[in-house]
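ligand=2'-deoxycytidine-5'-monophosphate
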Amino acid sequence: MGAERLRGVVALDGPSGTGKSTVARGLAARLGARYLDTGAMYRAATLAVLRAGEDPAAPSAIPVAVAAVVEVGSDPDVPTVRLDGEDVADEIRGEAVTSAVSAVSAHPTVRVRLVDQQRRTIADALAAGLGIVVEGRDIGTVVAPDAPLKVYLTASDEVRASRRDSEDRRAGRTGDLASTLVAVRRRDSLDSGRAASPLRPADDAVTLDTSELDVDGVLSALLELVAERGLVSGGTAR
Ligand code: DC
């Protein structure tokens, strides 16, 4: 057990299927840091909208999403997602939420509310003397523009769809690769094309193509980057 600890904020952005969640959690666990999955927050708010029977793209979705009490745990070993006190970790990964989340997350008012909560989680970690790995779409550009390390993960559409497909199968969700590819491309285009905080790399982000890397390969690359930036204290870099 090394005593290496992350200092400060690591912002991890990129489209779905780049392995963001897995490596963000792994990096945080490895470096005694907290971890924040901001996509889970947008997903939980979306579930609230769907449960209320509102159209995710309509203005009437906004007050429902804003009023939702969303709690996302920041311990990388115990990821939890609650909506109004109920554990919704599995439900938010289902097809209904996945296809509606881009519409809900495109509402600027919803983003303001959740970005505020994300910044509080980051501030709490830093105040406790801990580092935090934050993953999403706009972390380096909007949520934590001063983060000392920003990484933008990419991978080819085909690789990302295939990862999503395997993930779905492991979780017992049915689907086929061709429709997953269509869904991945659709979500990318909605997330990159929206007016409010579109998905894009920050100007000072390091881009890491994960198409040819496995989880350990991405983790090693990230560990190298945090060490290079002097963001690891205690022990040796690896
Ligand atoms: O990372 P994910 O697939 O769980 O994210 C779900 C959706 O939430 C994604 O399609 C866009 C949105 N999102 C966002 O708009 N901003 C973030 N910081 C994180 C996610």
